[in-house]
Amino acid sequence: MTSRIRQDAIVRSLRRTGTATVADLAEAVGASRRTVLRDIGALRDMGFVIHSEPGRGGGLQLDPQSVQTTARLSVAEVFALLISVASMRAAGILPFSSLADAGLSKVEQALPPDKLRDLRRFLDCLYVGPLSPLVDISDLGPIDPALLPAFETAFLQRRQLRLRYRDAKGAVTNRIVEPQAMLILPPLWYLVAWDPARQAFRHFRMDRISKPAIDEGATFRRRHVPFEDHVRPVRDLSR
After folding, report:
1. What is the dihedral of CA 209, 214, 218, 224, to 10 degrees?
2. How many independent structural domains does the chain possess?
3. Which structural domain, as residue segments, surrounds residue 98?
């Protein structure tokens, strides 16, 4: 059980029971008393008001009106929200853009400095543009949800990515690539990567990628991707 899942379980337990001892919580989440005490401290840092009542019949109590005041979203989760908004804006279907931007701005501001730094590095790899009406999207399929966590590691740590790719003709190949950018041409999403075997950039439609895995070998350098004029970095979009 991760610390995040364990802390969520502690909050649920306190809301449900009203009062619980450290021993009760430790048994409920399958952790040591020391770990639970550390989790309680972390929860208080997040904004939860947890009272301690000493003595017989005492224990830990969560203020019923207590709420979390700091974001617990991962970099990939916040990035998913941001690229969803960017995609809708690029497609011209974001009717409440100002409210969406204001909400996302608050989420960004609540992130710890290290997560905010990673998020900005992630965003620097995101580009958007219009899709040509000549592109056939009749075979558009779902995107593997495992892609985004794999992208987070690949982009932030500069790790090569292993993937299985099915091209427009249905041929399947196994590739090892160096992820350089993500490109949104609504409704299509692409991974733009340097292919060392072909010594060239390649655009991989994300709905045709499967079995993504991080290659634990050497890191790679970031390259300048020669996008066309109608493609812009997401940070250049007007808000």
Report:
1. 40
2. 2
3. 75-236
CB contact at 8 A, 190 and 204: yes
Query: What is 98-161 written as a DSSP string?
Result: HHHHHHHHHHHHHS-HHHHHHHHHHHTTEEE-PPPTTS--TT--PPPTTHHHHHHHHHHHTEEE
Q: What share of the chain is helix, strand, coil (3-state, %, to 5)?
A: 40, 25, 35
Residues 109 and 196 reside in one and the same domain: yes
Q: Is residue 230 part of a domain?
A: yes
Residue 153 has pLDDT above 80, yes or no: yes
When pLDDT is averaged across residues 151-169 and rounded to a whole number, the result is 94
Rounded Cα distance between 73 and 118, Å, is 13
Count of positions (residues) in the chain? 239
51 shares its domain with 95: no
Confidence of residue 56 (pLDDT cuts 50, 70, 90): low
Structure tokens at 2: 């991760």
Q: Are residues 79 and 53 in the same domain?
A: no
Average pLDDT over every residue of 139-164: 93
Model confidence at 237, pLDDT cuts 50, 70, 90, reads: low
CA terminus-to-terminus distance, the chain: 40
CA–CA separation, 57 vs 236, rounded Å? 59
CB 129 within 8 A of CB 232: yes
